[in-house]
Design a protein that fits this description.
It is a single chain. The chain has eight helices and five strands. Helix 1 packs across helix 8, helix 2 runs antiparallel to helix 3 and helix 3 runs parallel beside helix 5. The protein is of the alpha/beta class. It has a single domain, classed as P-loop containing nucleotide triphosphate hydrolases (Rossmann fold), CATH 3.40.50. The longest helix has 25 residues. The protein is 55% helix and 13% strand. A five-stranded parallel sheet has the order 2-3-1-4-5, with helices on both faces. Bound molecules: thymidine-5'-phosphate (TMP). Thymidine-5'-phosphate binds next to helix 4. Thymidine-5'-phosphate (TMP) binds next to helix 4.
């Protein structure tokens, strides 16, 4: 099995229904073919505790959950995932592809809910002991298109208004433009093969070196 010294930590971000899971599966296949160990995970979730927290939170009615309590649940799941799965995998030289990570909390809980950004940044640092993705792919899509793609199933965040989701989208754009060295912005309206090719041409160098 090939290894990358210190591993490679990739995260996929964006609104709901943008195609993160499809991209994650295609990347998994291509990177595994390059002989590397790939760990796929998602947030919230990816551990026994994290999946329980996910069910508890995303199965709730919006009005039952306080905004700070919501943030702390995401952070608890992130702490467990970072310690139990992500860090050991990176130490083994694996590629970790995580569907959402710390940036989701800035996008949703700061730009969406209005919790102060510096509080979330500090809590993210505590939860992950400062672990940052090497590359973050932002799949950008109009939230109304994302909602249509997802169909009728109204999960916890989909009970939010279109204004909320537009703020999240703009927040992601702001974050991505602020740190272009880490983020790759991809128009998620494109065909999934085109999206994969764009992302792969961005990542291939890091995988092959
Ligand atoms: P998903 O896994 O289907 O994308 O659902 C997770 C939902 O939780 C999604 O609507 C985004 C939201 N979320 C936050 O609001 N903050 C976070 O920190 C994370 C990880 C997810």
């Amino acid at each position: 099995m090939n290894k990358i010294v210190g591993g490679l930590f990739l995260t996929l971000e964006g609104g709901d229904g943008v195609g993160k899971s499809t991209l994650q599966r295609s990347l998994n296949q291509r990177i595994s073919e390059a002989g590397l160990e790939v760990i796929m995970c998602r947030e919230p979730g990816g551990t026994i505790l994290g999946e329980k927290l996910r069910d508890a939170l995303l199965g709730s009615k919006k009005k039952e959950v306080d905004a700070l309590a919501e943030l702390l649940v995401f952070l608890a799941a992130r702490t467990q995932l970072s310690t139990e799965i992500i860090k050991p995998a990176l130490e083994r030289g694996a590629v970790v592809i995580c569907d959402r990570f710390a940036d989701s909390s800035i996008a949703y809980q700061h730009y969406g809910r209005g919790i102060e950004k510096s509080i979330i940044e500090d809590l993210n640092t505590i939860a992950t002991t400062g672990l940052m993705p090497d590359r973050t792919i932002l799949l950008d899509l109009d939230p109304s298109v994302g909602a249509k793609r997802k169909g009728q199933a109204q999960d916890y965040m989909e009970q939010e208004t279109i204004d909320f989701h537009n703020r999240v989208r703009e927040g992601y754009m702001y974050l991505a433009r602020e740190s272009p060295g880490r983020w790759l912005i991809v128009d998620a309206l494109q065909n999934e093969d085109v999206i994969f090719d764009l992302v792969w041409s961005d990542l291939a160098q890091r995988i092959k070196d």
